Amino acid sequence: MQSDTTARLLITCPDRPGIVAAVSNFLFNHGANITALDQHSTDPEGGLFFMRLEFQTPHLDVSREILEKAFAERVAARFEMNWRIAYAADLKKVAILVSKYDHALLELLWRHSNRELPCTITQVISNHPDLRPEVERFGIPYHHVPVEKDRKEEAEAQILHLLGDTDLVVLARYMQILTPQFVARYPHRIINIHHSFLPAFVGANPYKQAYMRGVKIIGATAHYVTEELDQGPIIEQDVARVSHRHDVADLVRLGRDLERNVLARAVQWHLEDRIIVYGNKTVVFS
Amino acid sequence: MQSDTTARLLITCPDRPGIVAAVSNFLFNHGANITALDQHSTDPEGGLFFMRLEFQTPHLDVSREILEKAFAERVAARFEMNWRIAYAADLKKVAILVSKYDHALLELLWRHSNRELPCTITQVISNHPDLRPEVERFGIPYHHVPVEKDRKEEAEAQILHLLGDTDLVVLARYMQILTPQFVARYPHRIINIHHSFLPAFVGANPYKQAYMRGVKIIGATAHYVTEELDQGPIIEQDVARVSHRHDVADLVRLGRDLERNVLARAVQWHLEDRIIVYGNKTVVFS
Amino acid sequence: MQSDTTARLLITCPDRPGIVAAVSNFLFNHGANITALDQHSTDPEGGLFFMRLEFQTPHLDVSREILEKAFAERVAARFEMNWRIAYAADLKKVAILVSKYDHALLELLWRHSNRELPCTITQVISNHPDLRPEVERFGIPYHHVPVEKDRKEEAEAQILHLLGDTDLVVLARYMQILTPQFVARYPHRIINIHHSFLPAFVGANPYKQAYMRGVKIIGATAHYVTEELDQGPIIEQDVARVSHRHDVADLVRLGRDLERNVLARAVQWHLEDRIIVYGNKTVVFS
Amino acid sequence: MQSDTTARLLITCPDRPGIVAAVSNFLFNHGANITALDQHSTDPEGGLFFMRLEFQTPHLDVSREILEKAFAERVAARFEMNWRIAYAADLKKVAILVSKYDHALLELLWRHSNRELPCTITQVISNHPDLRPEVERFGIPYHHVPVEKDRKEEAEAQILHLLGDTDLVVLARYMQILTPQFVARYPHRIINIHHSFLPAFVGANPYKQAYMRGVKIIGATAHYVTEELDQGPIIEQDVARVSHRHDVADLVRLGRDLERNVLARAVQWHLEDRIIVYGNKTVVFS
């Protein structure tokens, strides 16, 4: 899917003629071979333009720093671009927060060990000690940070200290609500899995809510975490059929399979720099 | 799928040992051959038992009336059953209410003409004149009943008069809210198609709401109409994947396909006596 | 989705650096605003490169002819491109061939009347007279061309005469096998709907075959017609779950819904110039 | 989903009136409370009748042996039934055969540890040593039985010795073809996962075949193993959408997710006695 010489350029800017030509010329002239290109524009909302390019770097005629400086001056400024370049060789550092359920966590660890998730999993942090053996078996450090009711901020401070400059925080069924201060530290860099088809069944016990309402389809939603609970930009969703034969325990069991797949896809797309957030929505070039 | 000699017995009662034996014995002893049997019980909610039997009537040794009287006395009373028998030979009378969109209506008319919907479509009623030619082509009467803002009850009175003892009212994108008085006349006999994955996006413009929220899956929901808007028992739902590339018009277009299929399935199941309502939920023996 | 000023450029060529830059520059320099761009390359098979661009023509500084001539000389020749430009304003002429089943035909006619299929449906040709009223109701000419067993070529000659320079021939459950001579007249311009999940169940009675084999999922396949029966490039497929409860008639009924949706999508993509054929496969930029 | 006091009665017999009444009476009269009942009949094929009942045993008035003897004499003989009773308390003994791929194996082990698979996994047997640590971590014995090209029967003899009276053998991507002699020892008790949507792409390298054919949907199939390779009764199938963007490695990766889910469902249904085989097909009361 990708090699160490892959780089990705992500762009958001006002829509205007000539962007593709300017960007592709710039890259071509510096020896970068474009191997994938996706673009999108949103007319009704004022003409935003989004682009993702994958290019190969072996024949670059300049260093990363010079390439980026030149791009900023010669292309980005002219089109008022919000942009960044990510290099596949720079593996992202990922920390996973989890409570007691193991399914979403193990799915990520297994896919990572199978080379489906290009990243370094630096640590798993949990408010419970239960999953330590599972995690350490993969050679990944496990930190138990208990969260006591009245000392939540102390726990968060400890977690922040552990996280440091982590690139991505994944909440793999972490049953604690993060404070706005915490969330603000990692803008669009915290991914949560919600066990319902948002915006249906926000809040607690979504499977119970789904059962009581008698829905015929249940879902799971991976989204970036923002200050407002369950309201962040949706990255991915999936659903499964249910019937009157499924009680709440069945929904929980079926939902587990949804949760782990949806979360794994969302994390993979983030790691491959396929997601651009704008407003409260995402463009996913998958 | 069914012949004119098919009958269906639908039962709801407190769960208790011996029900299947009592019912199957009763039918066997009267010459009814059971050709399908579904049952369901809901432990956590106080032990309700649901059963649907399909049986063939050619070798019945008594008349319908005597059979039903005997069943009431010898079986139903003992188990405190809420029950009914429906005969496939008695085609249900169905009226369709529609506004201007033709997709859900045409799907029903086409499936009916293809013998997928065992019923008599007695009439189509609309608050607009537009769809008359489409409907009359199928040989079905079309009634135009305009609804003026301040004279809604007059219109409803006229519709009630037209409907008479209709067995089922289908709202195939009928853009008027029915009064509680109207709804009360046809309990669990009005099916609506809502163009969202309920309970997400209740109310007006669900596709617009879905677009604004940035969901990755849209849906449609067929439900029985109750006094509370968009809150009635859900019969069937289905979904389709969408992405940032779909604008509101695309969602509307994709949603049309969902709406017509979901509504058609719900109507078919109702006509085949596959649905039992309890509380605000359905058991669908499909 | 599209306006009359939309044009599409489709390119197949050996993969090489600089293609995107060359093409986007060329279009930009002639006043064409690129509004969509998809590309794909197939490394393992010798590096083929595929691209589809949508651009807007109102500010073109030259005529179509000059634009195309210039592109051929300045860009296409250099990169050894196989290419074409299609203009949305030039509605494609489509003929539909059908036998007795109406479902796939009606779906196309309904979607066309709903403006989902940008084309002119010039005629419907059938080896049976049955569907004439359905078709003429849409204001579309209906030609009955009977096919007698030993005089198939006579019938084909008549059909060819009717078709003339049709852009696309759609086989909407046309139950006659076309001769290689016929097929050769419309290379990659005849779309068929096969009622199975190809390559499973080629040949006759696929639903019967599926039933006998006891599969748990059935499918439908839209493909371009080539000389070899059921072997042409696949455009689109879809599936539905079945169980032991479904007899052959049920599979036929469920399959109808698959067939009409799969065929409609394939036709729409062809009309929007989203399909590139290479070898026996398709690239679908949907 | 089930308790230790659950039993299941599975019946296949010629279709005839009175079966449900006779069976349900018999169970009721012996104090067995029926908690689930599914039936199916196949008219077109000579009228076979299938039934699965779940009943609770705490109030049985006789021992298992006496119950079964009485059923055989008083009910089964009269209706020429092929039948068996399975008791949930008698956990089935399951052996898993695997080669080098871990995904299907780990899915089964994880679901088993999560109590989704009611059985005892007695051992894992592999022709490679690689997966030993993964398996032993779950406390399950791992046997490495190498298969040398010319000494296959020796290896099979060793495996048969290890298996003994195993109730179910699961081939979780075991890359050796079993001899007919081996298969005959476990009729309808060996489940295999085939990495294609059977009957498409039988034989080797199905993902490569699917890629070459250019299909738009790939699948996986769980089936009972019979003498004929890839021809046994299908238990479950599932599919995923693919496009021209997916190369063979992508298909393999997507297929892994299908394989583990499809195999897990098939194994679960077998363990819950939900499957009846007839001819080369299955009835799955799921």
List the helices and strands and how they pair.
Four copies of one chain form a homotetramer.
Chain A: E1 6-14, H1 19-29, E2 33-42, E3 48-56, H2 64-76, E4 82-87, E5 92-98, H3 103-113, E6 119-126, H4 132-136, E7 142-144, H5 152-163, E8 168-171, H6 180-185, E9 190-194, H7 206-213, E10 217-224, E11 234-241, H8 248-271, E12 275-278, E13 281-284
Parallel strand pairs in A: 5-6, 5-8, 6-7, 8-9
Antiparallel strand pairs in A: 1-3, 1-4, 2-3, 9-10, 10-11, 12-13
Helix pairs in contact in A: 3-8, 7-8
What would you note in describing this structure?
- Chains A, B, C, D: Keywords: Hydrolase, One-carbon metabolism, Purine biosynthesis.
- Chains A, B, C, D: The active site is at 230.
- Chains A, B, C, D: It comes from Meiothermus ruber.
- The structure is a homotetramer of 286-residue chains.
- Chain A has helices spanning 19-29, 64-76, 103-113, 132-136, 152-163, 180-185, 206-213, 248-271; strands at 6-14, 33-42, 48-56, 82-87, 92-98, 119-126, 142-144, 168-171, 190-194, 217-224, 234-241, 275-278, 281-284.
- With 286 residues, chain A is of the alpha/beta class.
- Chain A has two domains: 3-87, 2-Layer Sandwich (Alpha-Beta Plaits), CATH 3.30.70; 92-284, 3-Layer(aba) Sandwich (Rossmann fold).
- In chain A, the strands form three sheets. Chain A has a seven-stranded mixed sheet. Chain A has a four-stranded antiparallel sheet with strand order 2-3-1-4, covered by helices on one side. In chain A, strands 12-13 form a two-stranded antiparallel sheet.
- In chain A, strand 12 and strand 13 (281-284) form a beta hairpin.
- In chain A, helix 3 (103-113) runs parallel beside helix 8 and helix 7 (206-213) crosses helix 8 (248-271).
- Chain A is globular.
- In chain A, 43% of the residues are buried.
- Chains C and D meet through strand 11 and strand 13 of C and strand 11 and strand 13 of D.
